[in-house]
Fold:
Amino acid sequence: MKNSKLIGFLVLVISSLLFIQCTSDPIPGPPGADGIDGVDGVDGQDGIDGTASCISCHSNAVRDVVESSFALSAHGSGGLGFTWTRPDCAACHSTNGHLDFVDFGEVDPGNLSSNSPITCATCHDKHDTFDFENDGADFALRSIDPVDLVLDPNTSIDFGGTSNNCTICHQPRNSYVIPAEDGTGTYLVATTRFGPHHGPQSTMLEGIMGANIAGSVGYPGVASATHRTGASCVSCHMGESTDINEGLHSWNVTEASCVACHTNGIPAELAGFTEDMAILKQLLGEVVGEEYERDTEGDPVLDANGNPIGTGVPVVGLIVDDFPDPGETDRSREGIFTTAEAQAAWNYMTLLEDQSNGTHNPAYSRALLTNSIEALQN
Structure:
């Protein structure tokens, strides 16, 4: 019994010693010698700030100038940017309608309840590329692709860059096809707003979509105008300027953008344009057409060949003022006119709506104007 207790006591003592030995740190040795310092690296070259290219446009200084000049423009001052709810107008006179038109080619009337006037977002969205050096700056425009025309989808205009964005709206639309000879020698004008609607600037610059009446002046080749080959919508109408009333987003032509070619300053109009337009308007006010029969809904009554049936009652004047309301100018009377008269009226309204007084395409403007006058005088 005593031996058992003794053996147990010895086991306990030995175990305690083992435990102490296993959990105790070894005695540290002397510190080692310091290593040799490495060679200092070469300082790297500071790179270009990653946001530098963005800041060149996206800064308060740039934004303030853009917003100030835009506010003075017809687009931004309410002259054009109405809150339209008519789909045919909203495609260009509102943001929601324009976005529909760009994306789908038509306007959804149901999308116009929350309509808005023209803003930055009407034309700008996001960049297609950030490699501006190789791809060119797209200014985050919604579209810079070639534009198929509304009046003739088989005809496309490509100004080769950001000016294409202008063509989306600045083209004749919502109107009537150019009067063409159909063998009868007559043309039915069934509206008081005959002619291209407001925006034939791109087609005039291209030299198309006028009624090319034969006459003493030849028509220039398509896309041959100097303003078409040596300039652009953007270079002429959005030039750099220290005056927010010129260039920039005012879209008013700056003298600096013209004097490189026009050393005598900006031409106000094609030579004799005002006088010849007055002659053409006078002649159009003197032509005599004929009223047409109408059905119970006011639409023209047509014969078996699809031609309007006249009543024999004369209609004096095709393009007139004070019609249908006092104060209205350059409106059309409804009636049956000759093809030449209708073509001359189309050309008059095209030149009027172009608003450049013939300077967008002087040679084409001269041919349309002179040959239209001759057609009505002969």
Q: What stands out?
A: The radius of gyration is 38 Å. DSSP finds 14 helices and eight strands in the chain. The chain has a mean pLDDT of 88. Strands lie at 147-148, 156-157, 186-189, 288-292, 310-316, 319-320, 331-332, 335-338.
